[in-house]
Amino acid sequence: MRMNMKSNHQAVQSKNIRMWSRVVYDFKRSPQAIISLAFLIFLVLVAVFAPLIATNDPINTNLSLRLRPPFGFDKYEPSFFFGTDALGRDVFSRMVFGTRVSLLVGFSVVLISGTLGTVLGLLAGYFGGKTDDIIMRLADIQLAFPFMLLMLAVLAVIGAGLWNLIMVLGITNWVSYARVVRGQVLSIREKEFVDAAREIGAPHKHIIFKHILPNVLSSIIVIASFSVASAIISEATLSFLGLGVPASVPTWGTILSEGRSYITRGWWLMILPGSAIALTVLSINILGDWLRDIIDPRMQID
Fold first, then answer.
1. Where do the domains of the chain lie?
2. pLDDT of 109-167, one tens digit each?
3. pTM of the full predicted structure?
4. Architecture of the domain whose range is 2-299
5. Cα distance between the two ends of the chain
């Protein structure tokens, strides 16, 4: 029995190695994925080196320079690449620092919701019974509320703020992970290598995290890639409505919100941050779609 379990486990490891080799090979043949990844790496570098890239203080106001157009549209000296807003603040610098907030929210939310949802999904699928019923009923209750309405209600109670926003988005996005992981575990827990692990007395913790989790990891990665884009959009939406981060903190959503009153005179206040959000979400979605085709076992024919 021990040899059978070892053989099955080695077969799973060999399959995973082949899968990741196929991922690298197919990535090199996908220009869309390469461009998307390069753009996201560029954004990460911008976020990390924001103080060095920004040309001005993002919160410094100068009403004598208000609503100055971007470089190429301004009759004055080209001191502001992306123009200025209604308070004379440099839009380029605000967008550079806003990259930090968008990426921080996106990846932090995925880390929180992915960890919480994966653990709950593993427990529900592996133990079943009352554990499964309780976790899935909690998921059903949360899904019964409109997502954005739930966000607005919670943030209205606890108050706006960056970390409040991250925690709320992280806690309320666990359901998609839990439901997918549970469905995968229900099938995997009946496999021979899991039965073999039980027969030799392996503890539940060892079976769940050593034998089952590696086999659902591909699905988790696919969900996470799309969840980053969803979190960025949610942050921009809530900041646009005034329930995201404080107004003093530059974000893409805040720039959009402040520019809506000047759409005819300050078109760049809507076009530039809107384009940044669209390109970021598009890049993440392209990578997510590519990962789904490559990693998701349901899209593969062995």
1. 2-299
2. 999 999 999 999 999 998 888 999 999 999 998 888 887 787 888 887 887 788 888 88
3. 0.77
4. Orthogonal Bundle (1.10)
5. 27
